[in-house]
Structure formats: C-alpha cells, structure tokens
Amino acid sequence: MSRAAPAPARFRRFLLVAGPGMVVMLADSDAGSLITAAESGAQWGYRLLALQFLLIPILYVVQELTIRLGIVARKGFAELVGQEFGAFWAWICVTTVVISCIGALLTEFSGLAGVGALIGAPAPLTLALVVALLLAMALTHSYLTVERIAIAVGAFELVFLGVAWLAHPDGGEIARASFAPPLSDRRYLYLVCANIGALVMPWMVFFQQSSVIERELRPPDLAAARLDTALGAVVTQLVMAAALIATAATLDGRGERALDTVDEIAAAITPYLGEFAGKLLFGLGMAGASLVAAIVVTLTAARAAAEALGKPNSLDREPREAAWFYGVYAFALIAAAVVVSSRADLVALSVAVQVMNALLLPIVLTFLFLLARRLPEPYRLKGVYGAVAAAITAITVAFAVFSGVAGLWG
Fold first, then answer.
1. What confidence tens digit (pLDDT) does each residue in 52-66 have?
2. pTM to 2 decimal places
3. Range of the domain at 385
4. In this structure, which of 84, 163, 178, 232 has its CB flanked by the most CB atoms within 10 Å?
C-alpha cells in the first residue's frame, strides 16, 4: 500500500504544477464579468450575491473535467471531439469557442479603452499599445513565461476585495435580499443568465485543457492541478462578489439603476476612496482583468483554429513553424482593436456577451461530460462524483438556457 507524499513534497509539486487553473480563473473574472457583476449590484442590490457563491462548485466541476481530459488523454478538446464523435462535431465546437473568444476579446478591449478614457487617453492609442504589448509578449516568450505574466497582471483584480470592504455593506440588507429573488421578473432572469455565462465560458475549457498539455502535466500532477483549479474558482467568485457588493453598497443596496458607461461604474464603485484613488484602483483592477483575459481568449482562438486545421498551436514554436497559430493570434487582436475603436456600448455589449456564452454552454458542456465518461480507468468519470457532475451539467445548461430565453423573449 502506497503512502501519501510528505507535505513539503506535495507543496513543491503544487508550486511546479500551479498556473493554468489560476490563469483561466483570473481570466474568468474579466472585464465583461466584472461589468456584469457591477450591473447586477446596480440593478438588483444584493439579490444576485448568493448566486456568486452557489456557482463556485459548478465552476470547479466543469474545469476539473477539463484538466482530467488534458492530463490523461493528452489531446486538445477539439481533437478529442473529432476523434470520438467525428469532424463535423469538432468543427461545431471550434466554431462555438471562436465565437465565444471574439465576443470576450471585444469586451476586454472595450474595458481597456474605458480605463484609458479615465485618464484621458483616446481609445485608438490605448488599444494600439495593448496590441503591440500582446504581440511582443507572444512572439518573444514561452508559454510558461506568458502564464506568469498573466497571473501578475490578473492579480490586480484583487483590489476589488479592498473596494468592497471600504464600501461598508449592510449585513442585514445582504441577508434579506439573498432570500428574496424576484424569479418572475424578466430583467432579473436576464442577469441570472448573464452571471452564469460569466462563470463558465466555452473558451475556458479549451484554454485550460491545452495549457495542461503544453505544461506537460501527467497523471501524478492531477491532485495539484485540482487544487490549483479549486483555489482559482474561489478567488474569481470572490472578485465577482466584491464588485457586486461595492456597487450595491454604494447605491444603498436598493438597486434599480442601470450603469451605462465605465465612468459610471467607476463612480458607483469607488465613492469612498476619493476621485484619484478611486479611479486608480478601479483602473488597475479593470486593466488587470481585461489584460489577463485578452491573453487567454486570443491564445484560445489561435489554438482552436490551428488545432482544427491540424497545425502546430504552441507558444513554444517559432512563428515560422506555427504560422497559422501566430497569424490567427495577430488577426484577432488587430480586428478587435478596430471594432472597439468604433465606440461600441461597453455595458450592453458585455452583458450580451455573457448571455451568449450561457446559450452556447450546452454544446461544450455536453461534449465535456461525454468525453470524461470515455476516459480509461481509473480516471473515467463515474460513481457518485459522476452523478454529481451529470446533475451539475444538466442543471446549469437547463437553467442557463431557460433564464436566457426568458430574459430575452419572456
């Protein structure tokens, strides 16, 4: 009978393995997600706060299946779908993730343009600098270095925890609002759907599965990778909850007010800090969220397209060896910058993208569950955990579609 490794050895392994889970979770609480959380607090006070914590186990289970597939099968999501279900369904999945990535990248660049506007920088200048930075990063660094850069910039999101604390939320109002969800209200259901879409996005599955492969993680690394994912799930939902709390507290927990611009969100979320400190902290948090997500979704779109074409799709390859990968990466960045420079409505676009993500979930989650059921022993999804995963998948998909349809057309 094998013995568990000593605690110091487990900790060292965790430090070596950790990264993909934290990166994808920091990217999960991106500009669109933070704006969705702020809009939730602005319109409904604390009534959507409990949902942020209920979503933590759902987020973990979905991404745990993702790392299980990557570590055990050693193939990307689209490649596995094509192998098990045929090329048609592989292309359906790739199309889904690319659409999701395009929507996400537009919201990230919109968030960065909004941050630039807070300091008086025009959107074209801000986005040109961002595109140049992300292109240089991809062309000059390996995946591991890019991962570390992503974690470093994404850590700025944690400023929202401090902002929420300084907003002095009313505990009694939080408790009362948490048990009074207006489930018959179409506008409320629309934001429920948006928050679910902000939680699990199709590109997250593709990115983390590809990342554990690129990091060359093996089955002995599975426990550490799960811990990395669990910690990331908690952190991302704490950030989302903090954005909601700060906005709701500023508006006295009443809600019933829409926020239409980044300036309005910044003003609503940082009134206790003073204009300079408020804009600085909000700008750092939003910039960190937008940058880490822009890195992740652009890499995901490039990987998915190259993988579907059977081309190299790794940052560790030189541009001449992975022309499709780097070409799609550059095209996505430049195209998104051009579109966002046309001054799209950031708040409406961000919430709509999250609703779109929720409505795309059935495709990705269904294949994710089916693929996990086909893994070899002892990694196959089965037993009690398999039943829990099946229930979470079914309930999440059903409620996301129901609330999205009800919110849009109810």
1. 998 899 889 999 999
2. 0.82
3. 17-251+258-409
4. 232
